[in-house]
Structure formats: C-alpha cells, structure tokens
Amino acid sequence: MIPNLTAIIIIIMAVPVLILITFLPAFIELKKPKDGGPRMIMAKIPQVDLGITHFIPISNIEDEQKFDTSLIQTMAKIIVILPSLEV
Questions:
Q1: Phi-psi group of 37: left, alpha or beta (phi > 0 → left; psi -120 to 50 → alpha; rest → beta)
Q2: Are the C-beta atoms of residues 8 and 2 closer than 8 Å to each other?
Q3: pLDDT tens for the 87 residues of the chain, in order
Q4: Longest dimension (CA), the chain
C-alpha cells in the first residue's frame, strides 16, 4: 500500500504547474517578442577617413607605477602579525 497517496498526488500535480509558471514568461516572449531584435546601427554612421583621425599615444602605466616603501613596510608588519592572532 502507498504510504501517503495524497502527498504523492499533490507533488505529481504541483511539479508541472511550478515548471509552467516558471517558464511561462519565456514562452510568451518567444511567441510574441516585444523587441524587434538587433538593429543595424553601423549603417547609419557615415564612413570615416582614417587619414584624418589622430592617434592618441597610450602611455605605459606599468613603467609609471611606483610603490610607496613606507606603505609596503607597514603592510609587511601587519602581515607578520596576522598568523599569531587567535580566533
């Protein structure tokens, strides 16, 4: 004999309803989309002559990056103390 027939019937009926409610907005959007899709934006932009454009030189950030030694020393002191802290 099935131990809890009512619970099994409710689960069998509830799972498909839950799936339908979950995916219903996606099904409706696929059936009647509100958006027309991607547009050809580049077709509206006129051609640009590359000879007229100016190229901006990009500086190398890694060469300009300098570390503050006092900050590094302070961080090193903090990192040394961390393992000895009790939780």
A1: left
A2: yes
A3: 567 888 889 999 999 999 999 999 988 888 887 777 666 666 666 665 555 556 666 666 666 666 777 888 888 998 888 888 776
A4: 86
| Residues 6+ positions from 3 with CB-CB distance below 8 Å | none
Question: Which residues have C-beta within 8 Å of that of residue 8, sequence separation ≥ 6?
Answer: 2
DSSP 13-70: HHHHHHHHHHHHHHHHHHHS-SS------GGGSPP--TTTS-PPPPP-HHHH----HH
For residue 53, give Cα distances in angstroms to 23, 24, 42, 45, 50.
50, 50, 18, 15, 5
Predicted TM-score (pTM) of the model is: 0.35
